[in-house]
Amino acid sequence: MNERPSQRKALLSSKKRAKPIVSCLACQVIIMKLSSIFEKKEKIFDAWSVKYDEMLAAKKAPISFESYDEVLLAVLEQARVKEGMKVLDIGTGTGNLAALFLSAKCVVWGMDFSTEMIAIAKKKLHTLRTVQANIAENKWPKELNQRFDRIVSSYVLHDFPLDMKRQLIERLVRDYLSENGLIIIADISYPTEIDRSKAQTYWGCLWNTDEYYWAADETNSACQSMGLECIYHQVSSCAGVYVIG
Ligand SMILES: C[S@@+](CC[C@H](N)C(=O)[O-])C[C@H]1O[C@@H](n2cnc3c(N)ncnc32)[C@H](O)[C@@H]1O
Fold this sequence. Notes:
The protein has helices at residues 6-13, 25-57, 68-79, 96-103, 115-124, 162-176, 193-203, 216-225, and strands at residues 86-90, 107-112, 129-132, 148-154, 177-190, 214-215, 230-234, 239-244. It is 44% helix and 20% strand. The longest helix is centred in the N-terminal third of the chain and has 33 residues, at 25-57.
């Protein structure tokens, strides 16, 4: 992870900031459809916020949240943070992942599009710096115009198709990650596309076809094409952690 491919240096040194996540025409069509979905999702998350922590504590969350605590701890472990590091948590929700980084004495920004989720996170974590923004928007608020030592995320990015994930990662590296920084993403994920297909067959009609679960082999290829290294750890039967840098 310390050896940087030259392409990553090129990404970091690029002067262009805030390049749209979506650059090709086909993707723009997808994002138009997705933006109406995102508006609905924002409301869904607002409604979910009140019950979110309760549901996790009572182990009543959907199966995709299996081993939730272990998955979040794996993010902290893989991040190998030092006191004072700047961390951005995208899709911070009620702040459960952010809380781990605050306990490790990092300075943490939590970004989310849900007003209600942010309100709960703020109430729980007084030192969390919160920013309300939609990950899919081309422009993020100016508070985020800085470089972070770690950019982390848990259980958020499965709403994005692979190409949007790829473009988001590229944007994060170019515009928001510090030179020796790492991106650590935990989400619903399988080691390979074949494993993901098998899981879909297994779950049948319970599989949510509106979501884009990760497969480590395709993510690896996407990262390689950007000159980024990607290491994957499967943590539960359906969730894993990516370390990208
Ligand atoms: C399942 S929760 C996960 C929250 C937290 N990361 C955790 O692990 O508990 C997903 C969170 O991502 C936020 N989110 C989803 N899509 C988003 C988007 N496009 N922009 C900003 N936040 C988003 C939701 O509002 C919600 O708080």
